[in-house]
Amino acid sequence: MKPNALDDAPLSGFHKRLAIYAAGGPFLDGYILSGIGVALVALSPELGVSSFMEGMLGAGALIGMLFGGAISGFLTDRFGRQVMYTLDLGLISVFSVLQFFVTEAWMLLVLRILLGAVVAADYPMASSLLTEFTPRRYRGPLLSMLVCMFFVGAAASYFVGDALVSSGPNGWRWFLLSSAIPALILLVLRLGTPESPRWLLSRGRKSDAQAVLFKVYGSGVSVSDIVVEGSGTTRARDLLRGGYLGRMAFVVIFYTCSNIPVFAIYAFGPKILAALGLGEANANVGSAVLSLLFLVGVVAALCVINRSGRRRMVIWGSLIAGLALLLMGVFPEAPTWILVAAFSTFAIFNGGPQVLTWVYPNELFPTEVRGTAVGLITAFTRVGSAVGVFLVPLALDHLGIGPTMLLAAAVLLIGCLASIRWAPETGGLGLDQASSIAPGSIPADRPGADEQTTRIR
């Protein structure tokens, strides 16, 4: 493969800082989403929350992501990656603080929906910036690192929540407010981040793009190193037809199937572990340990993603994680060590599909519509995830833990089958190659074959 000054640039301090700033979004996602499961234990009796409303509160942030992802993705492509890069963090801080003052369950539900919307707004902005600046060798690992931070945020949520919720009658209020602190810190850190040169060039702002490239990479990189594969400018409507529609369908199916069990377990981790007989002593700590196991799987996937390939990782990860949930569903009263081993296997092997929920959406779509694609994918996948999370307390109450685990296993195995059929291999490709579309798309066995390159105009 011919070297490219941009795609083959060394990893710099700028790339590392940008990755840390981008990782703040998934950290807050994990912290906010998981926190509701901890807070519900204390707030449900105080606010008189029913099982139906518990499901709605658990799914509230995911419902908000539906709207936030769809709208913010379009705005990211229309006005740039940087425009709302800090505004959304200010809104997260405000909505987090307002949770302290709720007196009715519906008030909290509204705030959870708003929080989900602004958290989702960060996905296309932060991930597009990181994707478009990062050299190909580091793109997969750094995007995978964003997923790590979701599980770090979830684990932090359980530990902080366990301490604050038990601190007094208003402990759950202080805990829900606490997400404002990392949001404000991240807001300050992100100030001054430059705009994506790929986006600037797609808008005809060649001199601005060159200025950013010189600032970040020095004189060895110019706008001539940025190319877009395909047959011309891609527009948002192109995502709903031709090869891009197929890519959208694949990513939405595998992403949704991968996320439903994870989001359901995080929203109601203490309740699920207690139903399995694994959380009687301290369900919050047990859920935090589960988060750390997820983190182990994600870190392992991050380390091998360039060697194992995207396609094999998503197929085998979904299969093994699904079989682990199947075991728990068939034998929900098995000895504790078997349940622990099965839950650990699920958590660790789900790491591969989880990292690819960030890698695939950003690699498979071109600069002109990357933000829109990521935003729409975030929105579509949150519909399924919201339904799954909403149904968890109802399924536990009416079906029991065994059938609930069987349903979760079925969802993961559907994602596995979709990946066997459609998952492409984008590892080792430049961003412009991976995101190009050509007759036949990217074959699973010969990535990028027969694709043509054209300069951006």
What would a concise description of this structure say?
This protein is mostly helical.
The secondary structure category is mainly alpha
Main sheet: strands, sense, barrel: 2 strands, antiparallel
| Mean pLDDT across all amino acids | 79
Basic shape: globular
Strand content range: under 5%
**Low-confidence region ranges:** 228-232, 439-457
Q: Rg, please?
A: 21 Å
End-to-end C-alpha gap: 24 Å
Secondary structure tally, helices: 18
Spatial strand arrangement across the major sheet: 1-2
Give, in order, the helices and strands: HHHHHHHHHEHHHHHHHHHE
Number of strands: 2
Helix percent reads over 70%
Descriptive key words:
457 residues; mainly alpha; two-stranded antiparallel ribbon; 18 helices; 2 strands; 73% helix
Task: Give the SSE map.
Layout: H1 13-47, H2 51-79, H3 87-98, H4 105-133, H5 136-165, H6 171-177, H7 180-190, H8 197-202, H9 206-217, E1 228-229, H10 242-267, H11 269-275, H12 283-308, H13 310-330, H14 336-349, H15 351-363, H16 370-398, H17 401-422, H18 431-435, E2 453-454
Antiparallel strand pairs: 1-2
Helix pairs in contact: 1-2, 1-4, 1-5, 1-6, 1-7, 2-4, 2-16, 3-4, 3-7, 4-16, 5-6, 5-12, 5-15, 10-15, 10-16, 10-17, 11-12, 12-13, 12-14, 12-15, 13-14, 13-15, 13-17
Overall description:
With 457 residues, the chain is mainly alpha-helical. Helix content is 73%, strand content 1%. The chain is built from 18 helices and two strands. It has helices at 13-47, 51-79, 87-98, 105-133, 136-165, 171-177, 180-190, 197-202, 206-217, 242-267, 269-275, 283-308, 310-330, 336-349, 351-363, 370-398, 401-422, 431-435, and strands spanning 228-229, 453-454. It has a two-stranded antiparallel ribbon. α1 (13-47) runs parallel beside α5 (136-165), α2 (51-79) packs antiparallel against α16 (370-398) and α5 crosses α15. The longest helix has 35 residues, at 13-47. It is globular. It starts with 12 loop residues before the first helix and ends with a strand. Residues 228-232 and 439-457 have low confidence and may be disordered.
